[in-house]
Each structure stands twice: as C-alpha cells, then as structure tokens.
Amino acid sequence: MTKMSTSVARQKFSEIVSKAEFAGERTILHRRKKPVAAVVPIEDLKLIEKYEDELDARLAKKARKEKGRVPWA
Question: What's the average model confidence in pLDDT over 47-66?
Fold first, then answer.
C-alpha cells in the first residue's frame, strides 16, 4: 500500500487513479503525517458498502427484537 502526502497526491492524481483502476493499488493520503483519506479500487469500495449494508441489516433485525420503545430524540 502506497502512502503519500496530499500535496504530492495532488500532483500525481491521474497516476494514483490509474494504479487503483488497473493494478488494484490502494493509496493512503496523509496531511501533516496523519492519514486522512484513501484512493481504493472501486471493487474495494463495493465490498465495503456491501459489508456495511449487511451490518445495518443485522443491527436493524436485532433492534426489532428488542422490547420497548425508542424515543424520537
């Protein structure tokens, strides 16, 4: 996995996107040595979203089984 600052990433944006698309490479972007974002292949994003949807469904199913009411606030 490649790591680089956001300022370097700005200069190499096209290259980063191409590597994600064609080589499946993930790039972590840092600002002041703190990771702030990532460029990942679309397949990775789809997998993350699928996992989140499954988790939401499980949590909703669990919540429906709980007794009592949940306040709007």
Answer: 89
* Residue type at position 37: A
Domains of the chain: 2-65 (3.40.1620.10)
pTM: 0.74
Half-sphere exposure of 13 (CA within 13 A, CB side): 4
Across the range 31-36, mean pLDDT stands at 96
Does residue 70 surpass a pLDDT of 70?
no
Q: Which residues contact 55 (CB under 8 A, 6 or more apart)?
A: none
Alpha-carbon separation of residue 37 from 28, 29, 53, 56, 57 (angstroms): 6, 5, 21, 23, 26
Using CA atoms, how far residue 28 sits from 2, 6, 22, 56, 59, in Å, is 6, 9, 17, 26, 30
